[in-house]
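Hi R.,

As promised, here are both runs. First protein below:
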Amino acid sequence: MSTTASSSPAAPAPSSHLSPAFPGRAPWGTANKLRAWQQAAMDEYLRTQPRDFLAVATPGAGKTTFALTLASWLLHHHVVQQITVVAPTEHLKSQWAQAAARIGIKLDPEYSAGPVGRDYHGVAVTYAGIGVRPMLHRNRCEQRKTLVILDEIHHAGDSRSWGEACLEAFDPATKRLTLTGTPFRSDTNPIPFVAYAEGNDGVRRSVADYTYGYGNALADGVVRPVIFLSYSGSMRWRTKAGDEVAARLGEPMTKDAVSQAWRTALDPRGEWMSAVLRAADQRLREVRRSIHDAGGLVIASDQESARAYAKLIREITGESATLVLSDDAGASGRIEEFRTSDDRWMVAVRMVSEGVDVPRLAVGVYATTISTPLFFAQAVGRFVRSRRRGETASVFLPTIPSLLGFAHELELERDHVLDKPKKAEEDPYAEEAALLAEAERERDEPDGEEQLPFEALESEAVFDRVMYDGAEFGMQAHPGSEEEQDYLGIPGLLEPDQVQMLLQKRQARQIAHSRRKPDAEADLIELPAERRPVVSHKEMMELRRELNSLVGAYSHQSGKPHGAVHTELRRVCGGPATAEATAGQLRQRVLKVREWATKMR
C-alpha cells in the first residue's frame, strides 16, 4: 500500500502533529486539538474504515477541519495516495486549498486537465467542473488510490447531469467522504454516494454516519446563539392586471400575495428596506462595542438590488459596503479582503450563502425571497461561527410565516427525503388551494389583455418581534422608537441565559410603557409577540374549515340554519364575516360553538 517518494510528495504529518495554528479560528482553548465532535467522528471512521462516510455537521462547526484531519491520516498511513476535493463554488475550492496548506496538504485549485504537479497531494475542483469532464477525474481515480471529499454534497443533486457526473467520476475512488451542513433538499433528486433507509411510513431518508447538529454545537459553545429580529409593516403594490393591493406583512394571505408583499418590502426604493438596514446598522454598532471587528452581511436576491442596498448603506453609514456579485471575477478576492479587514458591511448575491468562512460576521439582513429551508439554514450559518465565549449573532427578517418557521426550527436535525409523501398526507387541502390559485390566476391574468409588470408602490417598516431559543418577545414598535432601541441595544457579548433574561425584561418594560400611553397613540398591535402568532394561508383555511364543520354539526344538532349560527357567533364573539375574520377571531368562534354543542348534550 505504500508509494514511492518519486511518485508523490511526502505525506503530511498525522493529525496528532497538527500545527497549533490549525484550526486557526477555533473558538477557545481548542487551537491544537480536535473538537470533541471532530474526534468522535474520527474515531467512528477509524473504527469502521468505510468506503463511504457521510458527516453532517451544522454550519460553523468545523467540517473542513475534520475532513482535512482525516485526509492527513489516510495519506500518512498510505490508505490513499491523492486527494480530490469537490466544492460548490470557485471561491470555496480556493478556500479548501488554503485550509489544506495550513496542515501541509497541497491542493491545486487551478487544476483543469492533464497530470497534477509533483508538488501537490491533489486538486480542488467544483461540481460544475466535474460535470464538464467526469472521465478526466475517473481516470485519475483509476490510476492512483484516491480520497474524494465532496463538500456540501447536496449540490450533487442540483442537476441530474452533476449527479451522474459525480457517480461516473468517483465510482472507482478508494475512499469517499461526503460532507454537508444541511442534508435536506427541497426536491427529491437522489444524492450520489448517500445511503437511504426506508422508514415506517414508506419514505426513504438519508442516513448519516455521524451527525453534529446546531443544538449540540450550541450547547458545546462551538457556535453562537442567534437572535432573530423580525419586521412587519404595510405594503402596497400593483399587480400584473393593474389592480392596487395593500397588505400587512405577517397577516394571512394567499401564497401569491405573500410573495408580492415580500417583494415590495425588499424593494430598495421603499421605506421598509431603508428602515431595516438602519436598524441593522445600529445593532452592528452595539455589537462592535464588545467585538471591535464585527461585520454585517446583506444577502440580496439579485445584482440590481445588491447595488441599491450598497448605496443605501453608504447613505446610512457614510461608509462604503463591500459588494460581492457572483459572476464578478474579483468576487473571491473581495470576500477574502473583507474577511481580514474590520470593514463594517458586505452585500452579496447568494455567493456567501454557504461554506464561506468569514467568522467576524455577526449581523445579517435576509433580503432575499428565497424561501427554502436549505438556503435559510445555510444563510444563517454564515453568522454562527464562534470565536469567543458570549458572542451572539443577530439576523433581521421580514415577518414572513415560512421564514419565522425556519427560525424556530433552526435546532432541528433533518435528513434528505427521497420520496414525497402521498398528496393527501402532505396537504389535505391541496385541491382547495389549487382551485383558489386557479381562480386568482383567472382574475389577475385575464386572457387577451396586455399584462403590466409587477410594481412595488409603497412600504413602511414596523418592528414586530424578537425570536430567541424557541421563544418570542416584544410588541410592535415604530422604527427609531425607544421600544425598538431597547432590543437593538442588547450587548454583543452575553451568555445565552443572560440574553433570555434581558429579552424578558425588555418586553416587560415595553408592556408597562404601552399601558401608560393614551388610547389615541395605540396605532400598532398592542399585544406581546407570543399572543400574535403569525398564521399562514394554509392554517387559515384549516381554521375556516374546522369552524364550518363545527357549525354544520351544531346546525344539525340544534335545527338552526347555518347562516343563523354564523350570525349568532359574530354577534357574541364580534368581528367580520368568516372569510374576513382573523385567526384569533376564528379560534374564538370555534371555542364558542364547541361550548354551545356541549351544553346541548
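And here is the second one, sequence first, then its C-alpha cells:
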Amino acid sequence: MTLRTTLDFLLQDWLDTTGLTSRERFADHNRETFDAVLDTCERIAREKYAPFNRLVDTQEPHFDGEKVTLPQATHDAFKAYAESGMLSAAQDYDIGGMQLPYSVEAAANAFFACASVSIGSSLLSVGNANLLMAHGTELQKQVFAHNEFSGRWAGTMCLSEPQAGSSLSDVATRAVPDGEGFESDPLGARYRLRGNKMWISSGEHELTENIVHLVLAKIPDADGKLVPGTRGISLFIVPKKMVNAQGELTGVRNDVALAGLNHKLGWRGTTNTLLNFGEGKFPVDGQAGAVGYLVGQPGKGLACMFHMMNEARIGVGIAATMLGMAGYYASLDYAKNRPQGRPITGAGKDAAAPQTRIIEHADVKRMLLTQKAYCEGALALELYCARLIDEQHTGTAQDAEEARLLLEVLTPIAKSWPSEWCLEANSLAIQVHGGYGYTRDFPVEQYWRDNRLNMIHEGTHGIQAMDLLGRKVLMEEGKGLTLLSHRIMATVNRCNGIPALAPHAKALARALQDVGVATQKAWSTGVPGEALANAVPYMQAFGHTVLAWIWLDVAGCALDNDPQQESLETQGHVGCAKFFFHYELPKINAWLGVVQSRDLTCATFPEGAF
C-alpha cells in the first residue's frame, strides 16, 4: 500500500470524514474537494520537499553574525506551501481559509512530514496563529495571526530557557510596563522584555518578512521580584520587526538578537536558536528591551500557551509517525530488491541455488511487519485525535464534551507513543538495510536522526507520563479514562462477533482491565512519589493498549468492507492487528507489574552507586 491508499482508507472508510460535510461549517466540501487537497499536497511534497531532504541535512543553516542563510530549496518549498493555502486550511473563508476539517488538514500535512520533516516552519506558525485566534484581541488577530496564515510572516513559541529547560516554573525572562500609558497601546498592553530563550525552532530566518515570537515571561511584583512557580507567567507577542496597527512594518528592528544556532542531531534543515531579548543590540526608541504585547491576562500565560502546546504535541506525533513511515517505505523497497542468502530446505542450504530476496526471510518480514504495525497504527491514532478535534469544534454539545475528555487522555499518548515506537521502526529500517543502513548513501540513518528529536520535542517522555498518570487519568473524577474505556469496550463487543478477531477482542478486554487495576494500585497509598515512580512504564502499557484498540477497530472496519479478505489491503490490516496482539500487547504485563507493586528500585537507587 502507498501512503495515499492508507490515508484514504483511514479517512474515508474508518473515520467517515466525508460525513463531516453534513455540518454547516464543511457544507461546501465533499469527497472530491478533500481528494483535491490531498492531491495538491502530495504533489508539492513530491516536487518541492522530497528531492531536497538530504540537501537540507548537509547544508545546515549558516549564521554570518548578521543573518541566517538557508538553501534556496527551503525558500521554494515554503513558498509553495504558503501558496497552496495550507497555512490557513482550517480557517474561516472570510480571512482566506478553506474551512477544512482538521482531520483532512492533518492527513494532507503528513505528506510533507514524510517527504522532509525539517524543511519549513509551518507547524509553529499555524499553532502560533491559532493561539492568537483563541486568546488574542481582535487587532492582535488581524495584525499578527492573519499575516501568519497568509505566509507573509512566520511564528515561533518561546518557552525554554538555558537554565530552566522543561521546568517552566524557573522561567526568568522579565517583562516590565513600557512607560506611561503602556496599557493603552492598540496592539495590547506594551511591555519591555529581557531574558534568553533556548532551543527556539525557526527563531531566525529570511523565509518571511517578519517573525512573530510568542514569549513566556514574568511580570515582577511591586517589590521587583518574580513570582515563584508558574502562576506568575504571562504571554507576550514579540515581533522581530516592529509593526503598526495596520500590520505594516515600521522600519524599526525590535530588540531581539540571535545569539547563535544550535546544531542538533537531526532536523538540521530547521534553524534552532538561542535568542536574546532586550540585550540592547537593537534598541527601540533609544531604549534596551524587546517590545512585547500582552496576550490575555497577566499571570495566565501558561494556560494560553497550552493551547499551542497541545496542538503541537499532536503535530509532533504526526512528524514522528511519518519519519517512521518514510523509513518503513525505504526498507520495504530495499528488502524487495536486495538478494542475499538462500532458503533452508530439509537438506540444508544449496549454495548453488539462486539467492533469495531478503523479504523472503522470516526475520526480515518480522522487522518489516513491526514497522508497518507501529507506523500505520500511529497514523490511525493521530487521525483519530484529529477527528476528535473536529468533533470538539463542530459536533453536538455532548459529542464536543466527549471529544474534549478523550483528547485530554489521548494527547500524551499521541505525542509519546509514535516518538518512541516509530523511532524503533527507524532503527529496524536501518537493520533491514544491513551495513548499508549506517551509511549516508541510503536515507534511513537520517530518518532515525531526525526522529530521535521527537522524544524531546514538546515535553519529554517523563513529562508526558507524569501528565498521564498524575493528572489526565484522574481529572474530573476519572471521566476521561472512563469514557475511553467505554469506547474500547464498544470495539471489543463488536469484534467479539467476528471470528477472525474474537481472540484479539478478549485479549484487549483483559489488557484494559489490567490497566485499570494498575491505575488504582499505583495511587492506592495516595503518595505521589510512589505512584509516579513508574509513570513511564505505565504510559508504555497504556499506549500499547490504546494501539491494540486502534488496530482492532481498523481491522474490524476492513473486514466489514471485505469479509473474505479478498484484497491484499484487508489482509494487511488484519495481519497487522494479529501481529500487534501476538507480539506487542503481551509486553504490557512487565510494564504494569512494576506499576502495580509501586516498585521503587529506580527511585531509591543511591546516587553514589551509579
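A quick note on the second one: The mean pLDDT is 96. Let me know what you think.

Best,
J.
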